[in-house]
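pasting for ref
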Amino acid sequence: MEQSRYSIRIAPHLCAGCYRCVRACPTGAITIREHRASIAQEECTRCGSCLKACPHGMISVRDDVEAVRDLLKGEGEVFVSLDPMWAGEFAGIAPQRLIEALTLLGFCGVGETLLGQTAYEAATAEQLQRRPRLAISTECPVVVRLIRHHYPELTERLLPVAHPAVLHARMIRRWRGQGTKVVYIAPCVAAKSNPDEISELDVVITFDELRRWMREEGIEFDLIPGNAGYRFEPGEAKNDTRQTGDIPRIVCSGMAAVRELLEQQRETDPRKEEREAVLLELFGCTGGCAGAQVQHNTAGAADGGSTIVRRLAFERFYRERRVENPVFKLPFIATVAAYPAEPAERFQVAASEIEAALASIGKFTERDMHNCNGCGYETCREFARALCIGRAEPDMCLSYTRTVAQKKFSALLERIAAGVLLVDAELKIVEANRNAAQLLGAQAEQLFDTRRGLGGVELERVAPFGESVRQALEAGEAGGTVEQEVRMKGRLLQVSVFGIEAHRLAGVMIGSLQLSGGLSDEMIRRTRQAMRENLATVQQIACLLGENASRTEAVLNAIVTAAEDDAREG
């Protein structure tokens, strides 16, 4: 099935390869191939964490407004089931105005999903009274998918009660006929179904989509009179939806907290539990439905405001609401729903394969296991497992990529005919190639053999151009190149010193005037560029490292070519 048909999708060709979605996904449903992300839809809970995490806006939610428009163009009535969070999303807007706006869009009527919530609460109370137990609410689609796919052994704890919006849809069809189409307007993207899922809701759109649609149609609340004639049909829902009496409720929101609680339940033997009715109300979004992930996360807060603002507006409306036209009698409907376990495929990986994968990224002992979470996985072993099943790529490991980039830089330095030094703010050598050690004399050569790359050696211990390096450090990249001739051990050397980063790093190129005729401007320019690229690779290791490393390699190879040309011309 095409990625574009799913409710949440990534545009692989636009993915920047920053791996933030991997780190954000609580179920490991993101696959990385060739530095591009995609979603393993069978493991996705549609929690929206990746939406919030992506800084580039490359993850999007399927826009279903056009599907609603198609329904409205067809035969039969199209009715709205309006989630109660509308009061938080459209704070200060009278319900009459919102109903009139929806009528202007073409809907035949608007009903409150809260009526379905009333039926849901009644069914929950009945379930727990008939069979007291610890049960998990099925109001949050994210939690339901999480349990079905990732905690299948806990599916028996899910209440066999349909979602409030589904119950409301059943009511609507009892009132208006079975052919009535129902559009659910929801706060969260998780309510949207994928093409392979059967839903009693014809289409689900979010409040974000509704706002966009209204803007496209030029519908503004300020221009709507909000006549009293526009009412919820067949009437208003009462505020007191909870009917579970004294049954204890434990509320938990946010994927991290929910998963921690489910892990505890996984380890609990249900036979040892007290036969007492307890309802776990679990929500994937922090703050419940008021904290639902919005589609346009990169643009700042949603039009409906922050989680707290939306929640307060919702609470205030239903606390202060005076029900003038209540629905006294709800139709009899079936409330039952089945939530069978559908465990996500867990690929079996042998311990030897994991060890081999760890070795491939330079992790041989426990000391090598940084478990930094930079790759998006909680542990290095989890990352290695992902490598084995094709979910991840080696250069997602930041420490490994940094090591590879450094080794590559060092190896290529050795190919340059000239001597090259990197010097830090303390005038200590960061790295040097062997040619530099040979040109600086016997002492530097001896130190090079004992301290590879002369790392940590004080520059002034082996070279007389410390003052020029100080000047380059002060000036930084904008300071140009300082040229000087230095005589060492009977050898006349051309020394080119340049700043790479002010007060932090300088570069030095050394050539023998007697042997090669000195350094070409092109060699110096390219070497300076290469050092700058290498510094960027180290500094930006968490973003596009593979690309930066390859650019550095290309620049260094160009330097080698220039050096070889110089040698031939000399």
